[in-house]
Amino acid sequence: MGLDLRFVLTGAKRVFDSRPMYAQVVVTDDCNLTCSYCDEYTPGAPILPLDELKKRIDKLDELGVQVYDFLGGETLMHPQIAELIRHTKTKRGGSNLATIITNGFLLTKEMIHDLNAAGLDFMQVSVDSIEPTDASQKSLKSVLPRLRVLAQEAKFTVEIQTVLNEETYETYDQFRGMTKELPFAFGFSIMHGRGGEIAIRGEKYLGLLEKYGVFEGVNFYGDHLKEMLVGNFSRPWKCLSGFKFLYVNAKGGVQWCAQQRDYMYPLHMMDLAQLRMNDTHKHCEAGCSLGCVRMVSHTLGEPLRTFGASIKLALGMSGRSKETRSPAAPKARATHAVAEPV
């Protein structure tokens, strides 16, 4: 079901209520790569038990979450990730969205078929460059064969995301030209440092921003990015992390986001009162370039200003889902009664 009328109506409630809409859930801190700009992995970290992850999804659904990003480390290192997606899609009668964020190195045809059957809605594949670089092994050369299999087999929407930095911006036009054959959405995120603050500067990046936007759902804060790229952090905004946006780390603690680790509250103890306490400005707002947090904060915090962008995003999601999912594609089925959304 994914993005249907029920999803839209419940999402509209999130503008006014005290419930979260979006959660990022770490399934393991382990990763098969060691990209130098990333500090969100621990080599050799354990794979979290499926039963524990299911309990976390149950709690997030109880709180009101509609959109889930599953991430790591490397998400596909979890051998039961498809079963976790299947469990997630039993919530709200499937009227929610489930996304996997991955580097794509571990993709196989069998895995894609399992994710199709589980009801996965989206996959975001991180591909930074044409050739491997000192900073990132996530190159087109490394994963293009897997991306072609993904294009042939996936019944879910796929987006390719590039981290924009000194090593990637000069070849980004060439990168897009080399991937024209792939029926995917494309975009880039702006490289950040520790704490989430934008880590690149310079007007040279503005041309790419003007030409391509950022990635769907956050283009409405493009003016903020243009200013930050030249060192101007003065534009105000309110971060809704810990309130409308939840980041659940491998230990089961809720952080404001992947980069802010001074706040942590046990997910199993989270309630509406604690959520409301996080409805406040954060000390790290100035210079923040975390697109996922920005998307939720601007969409729900500034609904009148972002209404047009939200509708366009919703229509785009719906349209791409219809194009990429065949009529006979398997869908997740609810295995128990589902309460009305809160």
The helix content is: 25-40%
Strand-residue proportion: 5-15%
CATH architecture: Alpha-Beta Barrel
What form results from the Cα inertia axes? globular
The description of the largest β-sheet is:
9 strands, mixed
The span between the termini is: 17 Å
CATH superfamily: Aldolase class I
Overall pLDDT: 87
Number of strands: 9
Strand order of the largest sheet: 6-5-4-3-2-1-7-8-9
CATH class call: Alpha Beta
CATH topology (fold) name: TIM Barrel
How much is the radius of gyration in Å? 19 Å
Q: Structural class from helices and strands?
A: alpha/beta
Low-confidence stretches: 318-341
Number of domains: 1
Order of helical and strand elements: HEHEHEHEHEHEHHEEEHHH
How many separate helices?
Answer: 11
Describe this structure in words.
Helices cover 34% and strands 13% of the residues. It has a nine-stranded mixed sheet with strand order 6-5-4-3-2-1-7-8-9. The protein has helices at 5-13, 50-63, 81-88, 109-118, 140-153, 172-178, 206-212, 222-229, 272-277, 291-301, 303-324; strands spanning 22-26, 67-71, 97-102, 122-126, 157-164, 185-190, 245-248, 253-255, 265-266. The protein is of the alpha/beta class and 342 residues long. The radius of gyration is 19 Å and the shape is globular. The protein is built from eleven helices and nine strands. α2 (50-63) packs parallel to α3, α3 (81-88) runs parallel beside α4 and α10 (291-301) packs across α11 (303-324). The protein has one domain: Aldolase class I (TIM Barrel, Alpha-Beta Barrel), CATH 3.20.20.70. The model is unreliable at 318-341 (pLDDT under 50).
